[in-house]
């Protein structure tokens, strides 16, 4: 799959993964449960919820992990779907920072 996401702050669309360009990789500990917390590269993470489903412009995803991150006293919520990765990221006040808007099967 190829993923397109839109950063709502500047309306910039990009293709994921963009790890080589300083993108985002979330490492969720194996057997993490709601309430599990960990730290990676100075960022604190906590699994705050596992949603049965979550909808973005790209579609509805099942078994979605909601991960709270805190970096430099800034709280974010990232929605992470199995086999897809990050599908949405919200600021602490609920504003969408970026979300998955489409997927494309690449051969």
3D structure, described in words:
The chain has 107 residues and is mainly beta. 0% of the residues lie in helices and 62% in strands. It has strands at residues 2-7, 12-16, 37-40, 43-56, 59-71, 74-81, 85-91, 96-104. It has an eight-stranded antiparallel β-sheet with strand order 2-1-8-7-6-5-4-3, with no helix packed on it. It is globular. The model is unreliable at 12-24 (pLDDT under 50).
Task: Kindly report the average pLDDT value.
Answer: 77
Helix content: under 10%
Uncertain runs with pLDDT below 50, 5 residues or more?
A: 12-24
Q: Number of helical runs? A: 0
Strand order of the largest sheet: 2-1-8-7-6-5-4-3
Cα(first) to Cα(last) distance is 8 Å
Structural class: mainly beta
Shape: globular
Query: Radius of gyration over alpha carbons?
Result: 13 Å
**DSSP strand tally:** 8
- Strand residue content: over 45%
Give a quick rundown of the structure:
With 107 residues, this protein is an all-beta fold. It contains no helices and 8 strands.
Break the fold down into its secondary structure elements and pairings.
Layout: E1 2-7, E2 12-16, E3 37-40, E4 43-56, E5 59-71, E6 74-81, E7 85-91, E8 96-104
Antiparallel strand pairs: 1-2, 1-8, 3-4, 4-5, 5-6, 6-7, 7-8
Record keyword descriptors for this entry:
8-stranded antiparallel β-sheet, single chain
